[in-house]
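Hi support team,

I submitted a single chain yesterday and got back a structure, but I'm not sure I'm reading the C-alpha coordinate output correctly. Could someone confirm the output below corresponds to the sequence I sent? I've pasted both exactly as they appear in my results page.

Thanks,
R.
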Amino acid sequence: MARIEDTAVVNAFLELDTARALRLAEAYQRLLDDGVDLGPLHGIPLAVKANIDISGVRSSSGSRILAEHHPDQDAAVVGRLKRAGGLMVGTTNMHEFAWGGTTDNPHYGACRNPWDLERIPAGSSGGSGAAAATRSVFAALGTDTGGSVRLPASMNGVTGIRPTIGRVSNAGVLPLAWSMDTVGPIAPSALDCALVLQSIAGYDPADPTTRDVPVEDFLAGIERPLDGLRIAVVDDYSLQGLQPGVEAAFRHALRTFEALGCRIETISLPELEPVVDAQVIIDACEPTAIHLPWLTTRPDDYGLDVRTLLQAGALFSALEYIQAQRYRTHLRGVVAARFQDVDLIATPTIPFTAPLIGEHLVPVDGGHEDTLVGNMKYTALPSMTGMPAISVPCGFDELGLPVGMQLMAAPFQEATLFRAAYGFQRHTAFHTQLPALIAAR
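Hi R., thanks for writing in. Yes, this is the structure output for that exact sequence:
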Protein backbone atom coordinates (compact mmCIF):
# COMPACT_ATOMS: atom_id res chain seq x y z
CA MET A 1 0.00 0.00 0.00
CA ALA A 2 2.96 2.29 0.59
CA ARG A 3 3.89 1.97 -3.09
CA ILE A 4 0.37 3.02 -4.13
CA GLU A 5 0.60 6.08 -1.88
CA ASP A 6 4.11 6.95 -3.09
CA THR A 7 2.98 6.91 -6.74
CA ALA A 8 -0.41 8.59 -6.28
CA VAL A 9 0.65 11.30 -8.76
CA VAL A 10 0.25 8.73 -11.54
CA ASN A 11 -3.50 8.53 -10.76
CA ALA A 12 -3.62 4.84 -11.63
CA PHE A 13 -6.49 3.95 -9.30
CA LEU A 14 -10.10 5.05 -9.09
CA GLU A 15 -11.19 3.03 -6.06
CA LEU A 16 -9.03 1.73 -3.23
CA ASP A 17 -10.02 -0.02 -0.02
CA THR A 18 -6.65 -0.19 1.64
CA ALA A 19 -7.98 -0.86 5.14
CA ARG A 20 -9.97 -3.88 3.97
CA ALA A 21 -7.08 -5.12 1.84
CA LEU A 22 -4.70 -4.96 4.81
CA ARG A 23 -7.16 -6.84 7.01
CA LEU A 24 -7.52 -9.51 4.34
CA ALA A 25 -3.75 -9.74 3.94
CA GLU A 26 -3.40 -10.44 7.65
CA ALA A 27 -6.14 -13.08 7.43
CA TYR A 28 -4.48 -14.71 4.42
CA GLN A 29 -1.20 -14.84 6.32
CA ARG A 30 -2.89 -16.56 9.24
CA LEU A 31 -4.29 -19.14 6.85
CA LEU A 32 -0.81 -19.83 5.52
CA ASP A 33 0.51 -20.11 9.05
CA ASP A 34 -2.17 -22.75 9.68
CA GLY A 35 -1.19 -24.65 6.54
CA VAL A 36 -4.08 -23.45 4.36
CA ASP A 37 -3.08 -22.34 0.85
CA LEU A 38 -5.95 -20.92 -1.21
CA GLY A 39 -4.11 -21.17 -4.52
CA PRO A 40 -1.34 -19.78 -6.71
CA LEU A 41 -2.33 -16.16 -6.01
CA HIS A 42 -2.75 -16.53 -2.23
CA GLY A 43 -2.47 -13.07 -0.66
CA ILE A 44 -1.08 -11.46 -3.81
CA PRO A 45 -2.35 -7.88 -4.41
CA LEU A 46 -4.29 -7.44 -7.65
CA ALA A 47 -6.44 -4.75 -9.25
CA VAL A 48 -8.97 -4.65 -12.07
CA LYS A 49 -10.05 -2.05 -14.58
CA ALA A 50 -13.06 -0.07 -13.41
CA ASN A 51 -15.44 -1.68 -15.92
CA ILE A 52 -14.95 -5.09 -14.25
CA ASP A 53 -17.31 -5.64 -11.32
CA ILE A 54 -16.05 -6.19 -7.79
CA SER A 55 -18.85 -6.85 -5.33
CA GLY A 56 -19.42 -3.86 -3.05
CA VAL A 57 -16.80 -1.70 -4.76
CA ARG A 58 -17.71 1.21 -7.00
CA SER A 59 -17.22 0.13 -10.61
CA SER A 60 -17.75 3.35 -12.53
CA SER A 61 -16.25 2.38 -15.92
CA GLY A 62 -14.50 5.74 -15.66
CA SER A 63 -17.80 7.50 -16.29
CA ARG A 64 -20.12 9.98 -14.63
CA ILE A 65 -23.14 7.93 -15.64
CA LEU A 66 -22.09 4.93 -13.54
CA ALA A 67 -20.48 6.98 -10.78
CA GLU A 68 -22.66 5.29 -8.16
CA HIS A 69 -22.61 1.78 -9.56
CA HIS A 70 -21.85 -0.64 -6.73
CA PRO A 71 -22.32 -4.19 -8.06
CA ASP A 72 -23.70 -6.83 -5.74
CA GLN A 73 -21.66 -9.65 -7.23
CA ASP A 74 -18.22 -10.16 -8.71
CA ALA A 75 -17.46 -10.43 -12.38
CA ALA A 76 -16.56 -14.01 -13.29
CA VAL A 77 -12.85 -13.15 -13.60
CA VAL A 78 -12.82 -11.47 -10.18
CA GLY A 79 -14.49 -14.49 -8.63
CA ARG A 80 -11.84 -16.74 -10.14
CA LEU A 81 -9.02 -14.52 -8.92
CA LYS A 82 -10.45 -14.59 -5.41
CA ARG A 83 -10.79 -18.38 -5.50
CA ALA A 84 -7.11 -18.56 -6.48
CA GLY A 85 -6.32 -16.52 -3.35
CA GLY A 86 -5.96 -13.12 -5.03
CA LEU A 87 -6.27 -10.02 -2.87
CA MET A 88 -8.30 -7.33 -4.63
CA VAL A 89 -7.12 -3.84 -3.70
CA GLY A 90 -9.39 -1.82 -5.99
CA THR A 91 -10.16 -0.59 -9.50
CA THR A 92 -7.91 1.21 -11.95
CA ASN A 93 -8.35 4.38 -13.98
CA MET A 94 -9.48 3.99 -17.57
CA HIS A 95 -10.63 5.85 -20.62
CA GLU A 96 -14.32 6.60 -20.12
CA PHE A 97 -16.38 3.50 -20.97
CA ALA A 98 -13.17 2.04 -22.52
CA TRP A 99 -13.78 4.05 -25.72
CA GLY A 100 -10.41 5.67 -26.31
CA GLY A 101 -6.67 5.16 -26.20
CA THR A 102 -5.27 7.71 -23.74
CA THR A 103 -6.88 7.30 -20.26
CA ASP A 104 -7.10 11.09 -20.22
CA ASN A 105 -10.28 10.87 -18.17
CA PRO A 106 -12.37 14.07 -17.92
CA HIS A 107 -14.27 12.91 -14.82
CA TYR A 108 -11.54 11.42 -12.63
CA GLY A 109 -8.40 13.04 -13.99
CA ALA A 110 -5.78 11.88 -16.46
CA CYS A 111 -3.76 8.80 -15.65
CA ARG A 112 -0.10 9.59 -16.24
CA ASN A 113 2.71 7.50 -17.64
CA PRO A 114 5.15 6.68 -14.81
CA TRP A 115 8.10 6.95 -17.24
CA ASP A 116 7.17 10.60 -17.98
CA LEU A 117 4.29 12.21 -16.11
CA GLU A 118 3.57 14.53 -19.02
CA ARG A 119 2.74 11.56 -21.26
CA ILE A 120 -0.16 9.15 -21.57
CA PRO A 121 -0.09 5.56 -20.32
CA ALA A 122 -2.22 4.59 -23.35
CA GLY A 123 -5.71 3.24 -23.00
CA SER A 124 -8.23 2.29 -22.42
CA SER A 125 -6.68 0.21 -19.59
CA GLY A 126 -4.08 2.87 -18.83
CA GLY A 127 -4.51 2.65 -15.08
CA SER A 128 -3.88 -1.08 -15.11
CA GLY A 129 -0.73 -0.59 -17.18
CA ALA A 130 0.54 2.17 -14.89
CA ALA A 131 -0.25 0.15 -11.75
CA ALA A 132 1.79 -2.75 -13.10
CA ALA A 133 4.66 -0.47 -14.14
CA THR A 134 4.89 1.14 -10.69
CA ARG A 135 4.69 -2.34 -9.10
CA SER A 136 1.74 -1.10 -7.04
CA VAL A 137 0.14 -4.52 -7.58
CA PHE A 138 1.45 -7.85 -8.80
CA ALA A 139 -0.86 -7.66 -11.83
CA ALA A 140 -3.98 -5.86 -13.01
CA LEU A 141 -6.72 -6.92 -15.36
CA GLY A 142 -7.63 -4.81 -18.36
CA THR A 143 -10.06 -5.23 -21.21
CA ASP A 144 -8.90 -5.39 -24.80
CA THR A 145 -11.17 -4.55 -27.73
CA GLY A 146 -8.89 -2.88 -30.25
CA GLY A 147 -5.69 -3.11 -28.22
CA SER A 148 -6.44 -1.81 -24.75
CA VAL A 149 -4.35 -4.40 -22.87
CA ARG A 150 -1.43 -4.47 -25.31
CA LEU A 151 -1.15 -0.69 -25.77
CA PRO A 152 -0.79 0.14 -22.04
CA ALA A 153 1.62 -2.77 -21.68
CA SER A 154 3.78 -1.30 -24.45
CA MET A 155 3.75 2.32 -23.32
CA ASN A 156 4.34 1.45 -19.65
CA GLY A 157 7.15 -1.05 -20.22
CA VAL A 158 5.31 -4.13 -18.95
CA THR A 159 3.75 -7.28 -20.40
CA GLY A 160 0.11 -7.75 -21.40
CA ILE A 161 -1.79 -10.50 -23.17
CA ARG A 162 -5.01 -10.45 -25.14
CA PRO A 163 -6.33 -14.04 -24.96
CA THR A 164 -8.21 -15.78 -27.74
CA ILE A 165 -11.83 -14.62 -27.96
CA GLY A 166 -13.82 -17.09 -25.86
CA ARG A 167 -10.90 -18.06 -23.62
CA VAL A 168 -11.97 -15.78 -20.73
CA SER A 169 -15.45 -14.91 -19.48
CA ASN A 170 -16.82 -11.39 -19.94
CA ALA A 171 -19.67 -11.93 -17.45
CA GLY A 172 -19.80 -8.91 -15.17
CA VAL A 173 -17.74 -6.74 -17.51
CA LEU A 174 -19.35 -3.69 -19.10
CA PRO A 175 -18.91 -4.18 -22.86
CA LEU A 176 -17.47 -1.77 -25.38
CA ALA A 177 -17.76 -3.73 -28.63
CA TRP A 178 -19.18 -7.12 -27.72
CA SER A 179 -17.81 -9.06 -30.67
CA MET A 180 -14.19 -8.09 -29.93
CA ASP A 181 -14.01 -7.59 -26.14
CA THR A 182 -11.91 -9.81 -23.91
CA VAL A 183 -10.28 -9.53 -20.49
CA GLY A 184 -6.51 -9.95 -20.14
CA PRO A 185 -3.79 -9.48 -17.51
CA ILE A 186 -1.07 -6.81 -17.44
CA ALA A 187 2.00 -7.50 -15.30
CA PRO A 188 5.76 -7.01 -15.34
CA SER A 189 6.60 -10.32 -17.01
CA ALA A 190 5.22 -13.09 -19.19
CA LEU A 191 5.52 -15.48 -16.26
CA ASP A 192 3.34 -13.20 -14.12
CA CYS A 193 0.74 -12.92 -16.89
CA ALA A 194 0.71 -16.70 -17.37
CA LEU A 195 -0.01 -17.22 -13.68
CA VAL A 196 -2.95 -14.79 -13.76
CA LEU A 197 -4.40 -16.01 -17.05
CA GLN A 198 -4.22 -19.59 -15.75
CA SER A 199 -6.50 -18.52 -12.91
CA ILE A 200 -9.16 -16.74 -14.99
CA ALA A 201 -9.29 -18.79 -18.20
CA GLY A 202 -11.95 -21.34 -19.00
CA TYR A 203 -15.54 -21.90 -20.01
CA ASP A 204 -18.25 -20.02 -18.11
CA PRO A 205 -21.94 -20.90 -18.58
CA ALA A 206 -22.78 -17.33 -17.54
CA ASP A 207 -21.11 -16.10 -20.73
CA PRO A 208 -22.32 -17.95 -23.83
CA THR A 209 -19.45 -16.50 -25.88
CA THR A 210 -16.85 -18.48 -23.94
CA ARG A 211 -15.56 -21.63 -25.60
CA ASP A 212 -15.56 -25.01 -23.90
CA VAL A 213 -11.91 -25.61 -24.80
CA PRO A 214 -9.46 -27.24 -22.36
CA VAL A 215 -7.10 -24.78 -20.67
CA GLU A 216 -3.61 -26.18 -20.85
CA ASP A 217 -1.03 -25.57 -18.16
CA PHE A 218 0.59 -22.35 -19.36
CA LEU A 219 3.54 -22.81 -17.01
CA ALA A 220 4.32 -26.43 -17.89
CA GLY A 221 6.32 -25.76 -21.06
CA ILE A 222 7.19 -22.11 -20.58
CA GLU A 223 10.91 -22.85 -20.11
CA ARG A 224 11.27 -24.95 -23.25
CA PRO A 225 14.04 -23.71 -25.59
CA LEU A 226 12.98 -21.66 -28.59
CA ASP A 227 14.99 -23.69 -31.12
CA GLY A 228 13.09 -23.98 -34.39
CA LEU A 229 10.24 -21.64 -33.44
CA ARG A 230 9.05 -19.98 -36.65
CA ILE A 231 8.39 -16.25 -36.31
CA ALA A 232 6.94 -14.34 -39.25
CA VAL A 233 7.44 -10.69 -40.14
CA VAL A 234 4.77 -9.33 -42.48
CA ASP A 235 6.14 -7.78 -45.64
CA ASP A 236 5.30 -4.06 -46.08
CA TYR A 237 3.62 -4.01 -42.66
CA SER A 238 5.70 -5.05 -39.64
CA LEU A 239 8.49 -2.54 -40.35
CA GLN A 240 6.56 0.26 -42.04
CA GLY A 241 5.79 3.76 -40.74
CA LEU A 242 7.63 3.54 -37.41
CA GLN A 243 9.43 6.00 -35.20
CA PRO A 244 13.19 5.33 -35.45
CA GLY A 245 13.46 4.19 -31.84
CA VAL A 246 10.62 1.72 -32.29
CA GLU A 247 12.13 0.29 -35.48
CA ALA A 248 15.56 -0.09 -33.89
CA ALA A 249 14.18 -1.86 -30.82
CA PHE A 250 12.00 -4.19 -32.89
CA ARG A 251 14.86 -5.16 -35.23
CA HIS A 252 17.08 -5.85 -32.24
CA ALA A 253 14.35 -8.06 -30.74
CA LEU A 254 14.18 -10.09 -33.96
CA ARG A 255 17.95 -10.58 -33.85
CA THR A 256 17.63 -11.75 -30.25
CA PHE A 257 15.09 -14.37 -31.28
CA GLU A 258 17.41 -15.49 -34.08
CA ALA A 259 20.24 -15.87 -31.57
CA LEU A 260 17.93 -18.06 -29.48
CA GLY A 261 17.42 -20.44 -32.39
CA CYS A 262 14.21 -19.06 -33.90
CA ARG A 263 13.65 -18.89 -37.64
CA ILE A 264 12.61 -15.42 -38.80
CA GLU A 265 10.57 -15.56 -41.99
CA THR A 266 8.79 -13.00 -44.14
CA ILE A 267 5.20 -13.54 -45.18
CA SER A 268 2.77 -11.54 -47.28
CA LEU A 269 -0.66 -10.45 -46.07
CA PRO A 270 -2.07 -8.10 -48.73
CA GLU A 271 -5.50 -8.58 -47.15
CA LEU A 272 -4.40 -6.34 -44.26
CA GLU A 273 -4.88 -3.05 -46.10
CA PRO A 274 -8.49 -2.45 -44.89
CA VAL A 275 -7.96 -3.85 -41.37
CA VAL A 276 -7.94 -0.55 -39.46
CA ASP A 277 -10.88 0.88 -41.42
CA ALA A 278 -12.93 -2.25 -40.78
CA GLN A 279 -12.08 -2.22 -37.09
CA VAL A 280 -13.01 1.45 -36.80
CA ILE A 281 -16.47 0.66 -38.20
CA ILE A 282 -17.11 -2.25 -35.82
CA ASP A 283 -15.47 -0.44 -32.93
CA ALA A 284 -17.80 2.51 -33.53
CA CYS A 285 -21.12 0.84 -34.29
CA GLU A 286 -21.25 -1.66 -31.44
CA PRO A 287 -20.54 0.86 -28.64
CA THR A 288 -23.13 3.23 -30.06
CA ALA A 289 -25.73 0.46 -30.04
CA ILE A 290 -24.93 -0.25 -26.38
CA HIS A 291 -24.95 3.39 -25.31
CA LEU A 292 -27.91 4.61 -27.37
CA PRO A 293 -30.32 4.91 -24.39
CA TRP A 294 -27.86 7.01 -22.35
CA LEU A 295 -26.66 8.86 -25.43
CA THR A 296 -30.25 9.91 -26.04
CA THR A 297 -31.17 10.82 -22.47
CA ARG A 298 -27.86 11.86 -20.86
CA PRO A 299 -25.54 13.14 -23.61
CA ASP A 300 -24.02 15.86 -21.45
CA ASP A 301 -22.80 13.32 -18.91
CA TYR A 302 -20.26 11.96 -21.39
CA GLY A 303 -16.84 13.47 -21.94
CA LEU A 304 -16.64 15.34 -25.23
CA ASP A 305 -14.31 12.86 -26.94
CA VAL A 306 -16.36 9.80 -26.06
CA ARG A 307 -19.67 11.47 -26.90
CA THR A 308 -18.26 12.47 -30.29
CA LEU A 309 -17.13 8.91 -31.01
CA LEU A 310 -20.48 7.48 -29.94
CA GLN A 311 -22.36 9.96 -32.12
CA ALA A 312 -20.07 9.14 -35.04
CA GLY A 313 -20.92 5.46 -34.62
CA ALA A 314 -24.51 6.24 -35.52
CA LEU A 315 -23.45 7.56 -38.93
CA PHE A 316 -22.29 4.22 -40.33
CA SER A 317 -24.84 2.25 -42.32
CA ALA A 318 -25.89 -1.34 -41.69
CA LEU A 319 -24.25 -2.20 -45.02
CA GLU A 320 -20.89 -0.83 -43.87
CA TYR A 321 -21.09 -2.76 -40.59
CA ILE A 322 -21.99 -6.00 -42.37
CA GLN A 323 -19.21 -5.55 -44.92
CA ALA A 324 -16.71 -4.97 -42.10
CA GLN A 325 -17.85 -8.19 -40.43
CA ARG A 326 -17.62 -10.07 -43.75
CA TYR A 327 -14.07 -8.82 -44.19
CA ARG A 328 -13.31 -9.91 -40.65
CA THR A 329 -14.45 -13.47 -41.40
CA HIS A 330 -12.34 -13.51 -44.56
CA LEU A 331 -9.28 -12.17 -42.74
CA ARG A 332 -9.62 -14.78 -40.00
CA GLY A 333 -9.45 -17.54 -42.59
CA VAL A 334 -6.46 -16.04 -44.38
CA VAL A 335 -4.46 -15.60 -41.18
CA ALA A 336 -5.38 -19.06 -39.90
CA ALA A 337 -3.93 -20.49 -43.11
CA ARG A 338 -0.65 -18.62 -42.53
CA PHE A 339 -0.35 -20.25 -39.11
CA GLN A 340 -0.05 -23.62 -40.81
CA ASP A 341 3.46 -22.55 -41.83
CA VAL A 342 4.58 -20.31 -38.93
CA ASP A 343 4.16 -20.32 -35.16
CA LEU A 344 4.03 -16.59 -34.46
CA ILE A 345 3.58 -13.27 -36.26
CA ALA A 346 5.72 -10.41 -34.92
CA THR A 347 5.12 -6.66 -35.16
CA PRO A 348 5.78 -3.67 -32.98
CA THR A 349 2.86 -3.22 -30.61
CA ILE A 350 2.44 0.38 -31.70
CA PRO A 351 4.38 2.55 -34.23
CA PHE A 352 5.35 5.17 -31.64
CA THR A 353 6.15 5.57 -27.96
CA ALA A 354 3.96 7.41 -25.46
CA PRO A 355 2.66 10.76 -26.78
CA LEU A 356 2.26 13.81 -24.60
CA ILE A 357 -1.10 14.22 -22.89
CA GLY A 358 -3.34 16.03 -25.39
CA GLU A 359 -1.11 15.25 -28.38
CA HIS A 360 -3.18 13.93 -31.30
CA LEU A 361 -0.55 13.71 -34.05
CA VAL A 362 2.83 12.07 -33.51
CA PRO A 363 5.83 12.00 -35.85
CA VAL A 364 6.64 8.70 -37.55
CA ASP A 365 8.81 7.76 -40.48
CA GLY A 366 7.27 9.41 -43.50
CA GLY A 367 5.10 11.96 -41.75
CA HIS A 368 2.69 12.13 -38.82
CA GLU A 369 0.26 9.55 -37.47
CA ASP A 370 -3.09 10.18 -35.81
CA THR A 371 -2.85 8.60 -32.36
CA LEU A 372 -6.24 6.86 -32.50
CA VAL A 373 -5.55 5.28 -35.90
CA GLY A 374 -1.92 4.56 -35.04
CA ASN A 375 -2.98 2.74 -31.89
CA MET A 376 -4.81 0.21 -34.07
CA LYS A 377 -2.22 -0.27 -36.81
CA TYR A 378 -0.81 -3.50 -35.36
CA THR A 379 -3.23 -4.34 -32.58
CA ALA A 380 -6.12 -4.55 -35.07
CA LEU A 381 -4.91 -7.83 -36.57
CA PRO A 382 -5.43 -9.95 -33.43
CA SER A 383 -8.53 -7.98 -32.47
CA MET A 384 -10.25 -8.51 -35.80
CA THR A 385 -9.34 -12.19 -36.04
CA GLY A 386 -10.01 -12.98 -32.38
CA MET A 387 -6.57 -14.55 -32.05
CA PRO A 388 -4.28 -14.19 -29.02
CA ALA A 389 -1.43 -11.70 -28.85
CA ILE A 390 1.07 -10.60 -26.22
CA SER A 391 3.01 -7.35 -25.89
CA VAL A 392 6.45 -7.57 -24.30
CA PRO A 393 8.97 -4.79 -23.61
CA CYS A 394 11.73 -4.89 -26.23
CA GLY A 395 13.68 -1.69 -25.71
CA PHE A 396 13.60 2.06 -25.20
CA ASP A 397 13.67 5.02 -27.55
CA GLU A 398 16.01 8.00 -27.45
CA LEU A 399 13.83 9.65 -24.77
CA GLY A 400 14.01 6.60 -22.52
CA LEU A 401 10.38 5.64 -23.25
CA PRO A 402 9.46 1.94 -23.46
CA VAL A 403 8.93 0.14 -26.77
CA GLY A 404 6.72 -2.94 -27.03
CA MET A 405 6.80 -5.91 -29.41
CA GLN A 406 3.60 -7.79 -30.27
CA LEU A 407 3.62 -11.54 -30.84
CA MET A 408 0.47 -13.15 -32.25
CA ALA A 409 -0.42 -16.85 -32.35
CA ALA A 410 -3.15 -19.12 -33.69
CA PRO A 411 -6.38 -19.50 -31.67
CA PHE A 412 -5.92 -20.96 -28.17
CA GLN A 413 -2.13 -21.03 -28.53
CA GLU A 414 -1.48 -18.77 -25.54
CA ALA A 415 1.08 -21.29 -24.27
CA THR A 416 3.21 -20.66 -27.37
CA LEU A 417 3.05 -16.92 -26.74
CA PHE A 418 4.12 -17.37 -23.13
CA ARG A 419 6.96 -19.69 -24.13
CA ALA A 420 8.30 -17.19 -26.69
CA ALA A 421 7.86 -14.17 -24.43
CA TYR A 422 9.42 -15.92 -21.44
CA GLY A 423 12.35 -17.12 -23.54
CA PHE A 424 12.91 -13.56 -24.76
CA GLN A 425 12.67 -12.15 -21.24
CA ARG A 426 15.12 -14.70 -19.83
CA HIS A 427 17.76 -13.21 -22.14
CA THR A 428 16.81 -9.52 -21.91
CA ALA A 429 16.21 -7.13 -19.03
CA PHE A 430 13.78 -4.60 -20.49
CA HIS A 431 10.88 -5.93 -18.40
CA THR A 432 12.90 -5.55 -15.18
CA GLN A 433 13.71 -1.87 -15.63
CA LEU A 434 11.72 0.58 -13.54
CA PRO A 435 10.59 4.17 -14.16
CA ALA A 436 12.69 6.80 -12.42
CA LEU A 437 9.60 7.60 -10.36
CA ILE A 438 10.12 4.38 -8.39
CA ALA A 439 13.61 3.18 -9.30
CA ALA A 440 15.20 5.28 -6.56
CA ARG A 441 12.70 4.31 -3.85
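A quick pointer for reading it: The CA atoms of residues 433 and 439 lie 8 Å apart. Let us know if anything else looks off.

Best,
Support desk
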